[in-house]
Amino acid sequence: MAIMHEVEMTAAEDGQRLDRYLRKLLPDTPLGAIFKMLRRGIIRVDGKKAQQSLRLAAGMRVTLPPSAVPRAVAGPPKKVAVHGSSSHLHPTIVHRDDDLLVVVKPAGLAVQPGSGQDFHVLTWLDAQVFGTRTATYRPAPVHRLDRGTSGLLVIGLSPAGSRSLADSFRENQVQKSYMAVVEGVPKPPQGTIEAPLLLRETARAHQPKVRVDDRGKPARTDYEVVEAGRKRALLHLRLHTGRTHQIRAHLGHIGSPIVGDRRYGAAAEQGDAFYLHACELKLPHPTNGKRLTFQSEIPERFRKAVQLG
């Protein structure tokens, strides 16, 4: 008799359809093959054949052949060995509960793979012991910060928390404020940039990823000069929309690109970081709805950069 692999359902899977759960559990297995294993009883729930539409409940046991089981199901996360130039950079925790984690990400640390770095926020999370972890869920950020941007980052620690947080961002219930050091001093010193942004699918490294274009999506950014030097200024910015590279593209559009942001017209600076910091977040708690405010001081190098310009 063949040995089968068994996965016990937790509260994280409660209410999910069986077919949707299996698609997440077996990402490399074609959907048709999953349906075939269900029809033949190769995949069972509580020892019985099950319909793909079955709603799972905590305590149910799904059995499947070992050949179909991904390594992610094997057990809890292990400490991750890190290599590369960013491995010395780690997020700083400012809030943590069962469903929500808020950290300050340093500039130079990527949020997820794709930047050529072995170590990023996801690998840091994998090395932690907090948060819900199942065969189909692990804690992950619910929004993005560019690698060169520092500041507040929101992470879901439970499936319900992640879903609720993602809904809050999508429904524009999250207020985001930033600080930036820019080339030049914008005039007037306070205003609103309303310019649609179009994603450039073929942009290369150090080319703008988005551009102002009437065919693009509406985008609005408020700015205010907080401190002005001879050739640079420190700005406070508030986003009303959450487009890719919105602040970077808008500031480049008005002729005041962020210092160090070569993609959008600034002169090259030493290192990969530029002068943009997510300084404030206001959002509803994912489970109790209480309005929360998180703040992060700008790095000292920002004020020095204004005076050095």
What does this protein look like?
By secondary structure, the chain is of the alpha+beta class. The protein has 2 domains: 5-73, Roll (Structural Genomics Hypothetical 15.5 Kd Protein In mrcA-pckA Intergenic Region, Chain A); 92-308, Pseudouridine synthase, CATH 3.30.2350. Helices cover 17% and strands 26% of the residues. The chain is elongated, with a radius of gyration of 23 Å. It starts with a strand and ends with a helix. The model is unreliable at 71-85 (pLDDT under 50).
Question: In short, what is this structure?
Answer:
With 309 residues, this protein is α+β, with helices and mostly antiparallel strands.
Main features:
309 residues; alpha+beta; Structural Genomics Hypothetical 15.5 Kd Protein In mrcA-pckA Intergenic Region, Chain A; Pseudouridine synthase; 10-stranded mixed β-sheet; 6 helices; 15 strands; 26% strand
CATH class of the largest domain: Alpha Beta
CATH-scheme architecture of the largest domain:
2-Layer Sandwich
Query: How many structural domains does the protein architecture include?
Result: 2
Number of helices: 6
CATH topology of the largest domain: Pseudouridine synthase
Termini gap: 74 Å
Going by CATH, what is the homologous superfamily of the largest domain?
A: Pseudouridine synthase
Shape: elongated
Largest sheet: 10 strands, mixed
Which structural class matches the secondary elements? Answer: alpha+beta
Poorly predicted residue ranges = 71-85
- Helical fraction equals 10-25%
